Amino acid sequence: MQGIFESILLTKTFTTDLKVIKLVSTMKYTCLRGTKDILPEDMQYWHHIESISRNLFNYYNFEELRTPIFEMTELFERGIGDDTDIVEKEMYTFTDKGDRRITLRPEGTAPIVRAYLQNGLDKKSGQSKFYYCGPMFRYERPQAGRYRQFHQIGVESIGNEHPYADAEVIALGIHLFDEFGLTGLSVSINSVGCPVCRPVIEERLKQFIGSNLKKLCGDCQKRFDGRPLRLLDCKNKKCKTYLTGNSNIHDSHCHECADHFSSVIDYIEAMGIPFKIDPTLVRGLDYYTRTTFEIVSEHLGAQNAICGGGRYDYLVEQFGGKKTPAVGFAFGVERAVMVLKQHSDIIQKANPLIYLVPLGESNRPALFKLLNELRRNEFKCEIDYSGSDLNKCLKKANKMGASNVIILGDDEALSQTVIVKNMIKREQQLVSLDKVVDVLNDSK
Ligand code: HAM
Questions:
Q1: Among 49, 80, 136, 169, which is best to mutate for testing ligand 1, by the most ligand atoms less than 8 A from CB?
Q2: What is the DSSP letter of 143?
Q3: Among the atoms of ligand 1, which is closest to the Cα of residue 152?
Q4: Which of 97, 221, 242, 325 could covalently link to 161 via disulfide, CB atoms 3.0 to 4.6 Å apart?
Q5: What is the pLDDT of residues 331-383, one digit of tens each?
Q6: CB within 6 Å of ligand 1 — which residues?
């Protein structure tokens, strides 16, 4: 559709004037499908989320670690798993001018583990706790809450096998969303076992599917031999019916995994976090062992998972380090913003604008001095440079949403005063120049 529209406009460029040519060139450029601009009007939501996150990460003793947005393709192939949806279908992969296979990061865990090893952070202390924020890239079919470039904020707690570490990151996730002011969230938890009991779980599942395999979707048939657990994760309704009645994954856990899981649950219960156990929550990344969890929002549509995470006890070893257990999560910032916008009353009103109007050229320096003073006292200000008459300036101030207008004309200059006009209450007062900050502070 867009193509037809463009070609009509292009035809016009040959028959009409320069203005049309300009129009065509601006119409042609849009951001790519699945990406979007984050506009100033939405920034208050992003800042709310980012600043609360940084504060809480500090209280929980997580430190920021920033990694590049592209990495060697192999890092994700090995880390996330060759036959996952992300690696098979969704990666933005290209060959650079040096013939290297490069991928725009689809997630943050594999890069953090790479950075942890490469920079010798594994040698520093027994436990390392990192957080990260930034854009991720997945070639998915775009829809509400699902983008090709999206942002994640996540944490990785590396070096602690104790169930406390799992409970700590889950508690941190919930604490974050509570502080954002989000409601209608629920937590699902599962354990996908370890290399000891995973083969038992998988074998039982394969036996249960048995001759029904041919009736499952192509992806399930393909995963049956190598990654049968992923069948539990299939969104296809028909596949789900063939899985009904399959034995509970928890019945096949080894003692260590069963004990670990029950301790995680004990800690979460002790913190008073409501949750449900979902034995089908296997998640779409291969690195998970033991605990997996997801936080979903009832305020989102089909893409209701706002946060996902789990334990990955073998990834550090797989990347060449020594055996180091780890657990973490990431949440989607766009999805958190979507929920937040439905409760816009949560966001504190931005600092209102003060608009300064000098009447006459000679009064500009005095008002410029006041402008400087107000900004240094943390007022958001703008000065009118147009030289237009007062009515026009007031209209402009109104349009810009100014809460107060400060006017300085010849009379005020003589008496070292200004008029402070409150645009909301529609009242004005004469204020001595050295008292303006106090008066504005009082009216906040
Ligand atoms: P994930 O479940 O793939 O996990 O992604 C985490 C969150 O990112 C999702 O819950 C969702 O909110 C958001 N998200 C994912 N894809 C999109 C998309 N296309 N558009 C918008 N938002 C999206 C991971 O990425 C793991 N690395 C999490 C983790 C950290 N596990 C252990 N540590």
A1: 136
A2: B
A3: 8
A4: 325
A5: 999 999 999 998 767 776 778 999 999 999 999 999 999 999 999 999 999 99
A6: 107-109, 138, 140, 145-147, 150, 152, 154, 156, 285, 305-310, 328-332, 334-335
301 and 387 belong to one structural domain: no
Tell me which residue has its CA closest to atom 22 in ligand 1: 332
For the CA atoms of 215, 220, 226, 231, the dihedral, rounded to the nearest 10 degrees, stands at -110
What pLDDT, on a 0 to 100 scale, did the predictor assign at position 8? Answer: 39
Which atom of ligand 1 has the smallest separation from the CA of 294?
10
H-type alpha helices, 233-381: 237-243, 255-270, 315-318, 333-341, 364-376
Q: Of the given ranges (113-122, 206-215, 309-318, 325-334), which has the lowest mean pLDDT?
A: 206-215
Residue 22: CB atoms within 10 Å:
11
CB 170 within 8 A of CB 307: no
Q: Which tokens is 219 given?
A: 């992806």
Using CA atoms of 240, 309, 317, 137 in order, give the dihedral in degrees to the nearest 10: 90
Beta carbons of 222 and 213 less than 8 angstroms apart: no
Query: What are the residues facing 407 on neighbouring strands?
Result: 357, 419
Please write the tens of the pLDDT for every residue from 387-403.
Answer: 999 999 999 999 999 99
| Residue with CA closest to ligand 1 atom 31 | 309
Number of domains in the chain: 2
Residue the block writes with tokens 């995973």: 198
- 33 inside domain: no
pTM of the model: 0.89
Instruction: Please give the C-alpha separations between residue 72 and each of 84, 134, 288, 391, in angstroms, as whole numbers.
Output: 17, 18, 21, 61
425 burial level (CB within 10 Å; 0-12, 13-18, 19+): exposed
Residue 287's domain comprises: 40-197+253-345
153 CA → ligand 1 middle, Å: 9
In angstroms, the CA 200 to CA 317 distance is: 23
Find the 85 Cα to ligand 1 centroid distance in Å. 13
- What's the pLDDT score for residue 440? 94
From 345, 365, 396, give the residue that closes a domain: 345
Percentage of the chain beyond pLDDT 70 is 93
For residues 358 and 291, membership in a common domain is answered with: no
Q: Mapping DSSP to helix (H, G, I), strand (E, B) and coil, where does residue 45 land? A: helix
